[in-house]
């Protein structure tokens, strides 16, 4: 019975976070309300407050959940050693989440653009060491002459910029695609193009 309640809470929390991503993305932090989010997720507002007592708490939870998702995308840095495999896997994972969770990427971008007012020091704690570990792996590839000499942080920024573009500027992508969402084939071509450009730029063939 206890496990059943835990599972219900987990599922409801997941639904609330996804609904909050959408509302915060569309209305911004200031324009969004707990009532809007409760309506989106299909829960009474009182139930929503049972999970998150304030809008601040829910907004922070959305941001930290997104960061955890992106950390999961980067597990390939620890699972594999081949730079071609690592970067190809990472680009695909980032592109997939840009397609499946575009609202979340927009919320994250808006928070960072404004200087991380809600995350504050939490951003340093959650992001700094994680990013430095990825940079160290790239630096080791350079030292071992497995890839061309590149600045590790710049390589990461290029990957983030090119993959998250498809989420943060999804409307622009749609407009330039004759007002149509990318088809499966177009999405796959985008993944392959970004992968090819990144890998060839560091001296690898895709």
UniProtKB/TrEMBL annotation:
Report the coiled-coil segments.
none
Superkingdom of origin? Bacteria
Q: What is an example of a GO molecular function annotated in this UniProt entry?
A: DNA binding
Alphabetical UniProt keywords:
DNA-binding
Gene3D superfamilies, sorted? Homeodomain-like, Tetracycline Repressor, domain 2
Please tell me whether the keyword DNA-binding is annotated for this protein. yes
The keyword Ligase is assigned to this record: no
The feature table lists the DNA-binding region at 33-52
User: Could you give a single Gene Ontology term from the biological process aspect?
Assistant: negative regulation of DNA-templated transcription
PROSITE patterns reported for this sequence: HTH_TETR_2
Q: Which PANTHER family match?
A: HTH-TYPE TRANSCRIPTIONAL REPRESSOR SCO4008 (PTHR30328:SF54), TRANSCRIPTIONAL REPRESSOR (PTHR30328)
How is this protein named in the record?
A: TetR family transcriptional regulator
Q: What is the organism field in this record?
A: Pseudomonas marincola
State the organism's lineage: Bacteria, Pseudomonadati, Pseudomonadota, Gammaproteobacteria, Pseudomonadales
């Amino acid at each position: 019975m206890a496990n059943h309640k835990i599972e219900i809470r987990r599922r409801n929390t997941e639904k609330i976070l996804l609904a909050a991503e959408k509302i915060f993305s569309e209305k911004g932090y200031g324009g969004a309300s707990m009532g809007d989010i409760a309506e989106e997720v299909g829960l009474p507002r009182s139930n929503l407050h049972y999970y998150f007592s304030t809008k601040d708490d829910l907004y922070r939870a959305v941001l930290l959940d997104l960061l955890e998702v992106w950390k999961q995308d980067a597990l390939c840095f620890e699972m594999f050693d081949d730079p071609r495999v690592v970067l190809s896997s990472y680009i695909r994972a980032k592109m997939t989440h840009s397609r499946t969770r575009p609202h979340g990427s927009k919320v994250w971008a808006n928070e960072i653009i404004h200087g991380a007012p809600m995350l504050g020091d939490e951003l340093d704690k959650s992001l700094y060491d994680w990013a430095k570990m990825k940079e160290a792996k790239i630096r080791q590839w350079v030292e071992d002459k497995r890839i061309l000499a590149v600045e590790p942080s710049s390589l990461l920024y290029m990957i983030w910029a090119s993959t998250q573009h498809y989420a943060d500027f999804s409307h622009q992508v749609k407009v330039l695609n004759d007002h149509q969402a990318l088809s499966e084939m177009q999405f796959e071509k985008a993944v392959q193009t970004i992968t090819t450009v990144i890998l060839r730029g560091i001296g690898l063939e895709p």
